[in-house]
Amino acid sequence: MWPFSSENSGGRRERGVLPTSPNASNAGSQPTVPDTSLAEEIDVTLQTVTRQPQRLGLHPILRISLIGAISFIAGFGLGSAHGATTAALRYRAENAHRTPTSRTGWYLYGKSRNYHAIIGGVTEGVKNGARYAAWTTLFLAIEEGLDRARGKVFASRQDREDGKLARGQRDFLNTVSAAVAFSGLYGWKNGFDRWSAQRLTRSAVRFAVPFGLAQDALASLRGDRPWYVEWVMGRAGAVERNKVGQEMA
Length: 249
Fold this sequence. Notes:
By secondary structure, the protein is mostly helical. The chain has a domain at about 65-140. Helices cover about 75% and strands about 0% of the residues. The chain contains 8 helices and 2 strands. The protein has a two-stranded antiparallel ribbon. A hairpin with a 5-residue loop joins strand 1 (about 5) and strand 2 (about 15). Helix 3 packs antiparallel against helix 4, helix 4 packs across helix 6 (about 170-190) and helix 6 runs antiparallel to helix 7 (about 195-220). The chain is elongated. Mean pLDDT is about 80; it is low at about 1-20, about 25-30 and about 45-50. Keywords: Membrane, Transmembrane, Transmembrane helix.
C-alpha cells in the first residue's frame, strides 16, 4: 500500500490523501455556517433608524455632537476674549506700584502681561466653551426626549411592535417645551429670582419659536412634514376636491 493513501467504500485507492477517522470525515462534510442572526438584527435596526425622520436630517447623536461642538467653539471664542482682557487688566492692577523705568523693563513688562493674558484667555475660554456645550447638549437632549415620547404616544400598535415612531410629531411645540424646561433648570441652577426667571423664560420662547419653525420648514422640504402641515394640506385638498365635484355636478 502506498503511503499517504486511503481506500474509499468502493475499494478504490486515492493517492496523496491522509487517512481520517469517520467522525472527522463526517464533521468535514458539514461545513460550519456562521451565525448571522446578530448581524441581521443589527442591519434591520440600522435600517429602521435610518428611515425614521430626524431633525435637520441628522441622527440625534450626530446632531447633538455637532451643535455641541459649535457651541463649544463659540463659547471658547467669547470666553477667551473676555478672559484675556480681564487677565491683562488684573496684571496691570497688580503691578501698578512697580512700573518699569527702562526700555528693557517695559519690554519684559509687556511680554509678561501678554503671557498672563494668553493663559487667562485659554483658561476662561475652555471653561466658557464647556459650559456652553453642556447647556446646549441638555437643551437638545430634552427636545429629542420630547420628540421620542410624542412619537411613541401617537404611534400605532404595528409601529410600536416594529420599533417605529409616529411621523410628524417632531415640531416646534417640542422645541418650545424644551426651551421652557431648559430655562427653568438654568434659572434654578443659577439661583434666579422670580422676575429674572420669567424674563429668561420669555427670551427662551422668543428663541425657540423661530428655531422650531425653521426646523419644521426644513423637514417639510425633505418630505417629513409635521402634523399641522399635513392637516392644513389635507384641508386644502378636501376643499379643492369639493370644488371640483361641484363643478362637475
